[in-house]
Amino acid sequence: MAFYRKDPEMAFCLQGLLDRFEKEGRPNLQENIAITWIRYDKQSPSTSSGYGTGWNSNRNFYPASVVKIVYALATQVWLQKDLIVDSEELRRALHEMIANSNNDATSYILDLLTGTTSGPSLNDSNYQAWKVQRQLINHWLYDLRWPEIKHWNCSQKTWNEGPFGRDKDFYGKKNENRNIMTTDGSARIFESLMTFEMLPKLASEDLIKVFQRSLDPVRRKQDLENQVDGFLGAGLPLASKLWSKAGLMSEVRHDVAWWEAPKKNPMLAVVFTTGKELVKDQFLLPAISSELNKLAI
After folding, report:
1. How far apart are the first and last CA of the chain?
2. What is the 8-class DSSP label of residue 175?
3. CA 222/CA 217 separation, integer angstroms
4. Which residue of 28, 29, 173, 286 has the fewest CB atoms within a 10 Å radius of its CB?
5. 8 A C-beta contact, residue 270 and residue 255
């Protein structure tokens, strides 16, 4: 059973959108896209107020930088449990990881959360111990007992070029141990942050600020990697409030976005796409959010 209430009308609308977008010149779109779409019926949403639908929403995808949402949330959970020490450097890395999708900052955060470091390959006994430590975030996710994240893997760093040494070993010979996430699970993780389910309110508000995106056209032109253009935020009215995290690499184009459009209740959408043609398609995600927003109340 999904964590949101299933809405047949929303499912019908989503199917119609995907049919239309596929016929516009995107062959096999419905095989290469996953979506979770949730609307909230209150101005102050809660984890019980969402109703929505999904498409391939429990299919595993390589998440690219979307995994940084998990690492950011884990950082706050670790802080609440006094498992790590707060510092200006931690806060700087957390901001850079989410606001600018910085991979070096992500590497620092993951090392801090798991007590591991990158480096050359290890002998077997040390490598086995290292792998146990690197899996700490997966163990935390498993302990949540959320069916949407049951088969996730969130244990790998993100890279500009690729892993080396012990990180390459950990990926496996065929990259079979890459990170894996789903749109339903990503939606539930982000909802837990935005509705203050996972963390105390002050800690949630502190983290939520890092995900906020500006829709101002001037500011977006000044930052070509703004995580809005080419993603869901680009399809929203400029007066909307947006919190999001995009993921983009040679194989995938993803976005997780919570927005509040003028005079409308909040909405959450997660869209994962795979394939070289969809990666290059800068119009699809904005078109999806634009159409979904028209259906908001």
Report:
1. 25
2. S
3. 9
4. 173
5. yes
Q: What is the pLDDT of residues 97-149, one digit of tens each?
A: 999 999 999 999 999 999 999 999 999 999 999 999 999 999 999 999 999 99
With vertex at residue 62, the alpha carbon angle to CA 58 and CA 64, rounded to the nearest 5 degrees, is 125
> Quick check: 50 and 40 in contact, CB under 8 A?
yes
Distance, C-alpha 17 to centroid of its chain: 22
Mean per-residue pLDDT over the chain, rounded: 95
Token code pair at residue 233: 């935020």
Of the pLDDT bands very low, low, confident and very high (cuts 50, 70, 90), residue 49 is confident
Q: Report DSSP state, residue 296.
A: -
43, pLDDT greater than 70:
no
At 292 the three-state DSSP class reads: helix
29 within 8 A of 278, measured Cβ to Cβ: yes
- Percent of the chain scored above 90 by pLDDT? 94
The sign of the CA dihedral 15, 5, 255, 260 is positive
Average pLDDT over residues 211-239: 96
243 membership: H or E segment, kind and range: strand 241-248
Cα separation, 36 vs 283, in Å, equals 19
d(CA 105, CA 108): 5
Quick one: tokens of 152? 């996730």
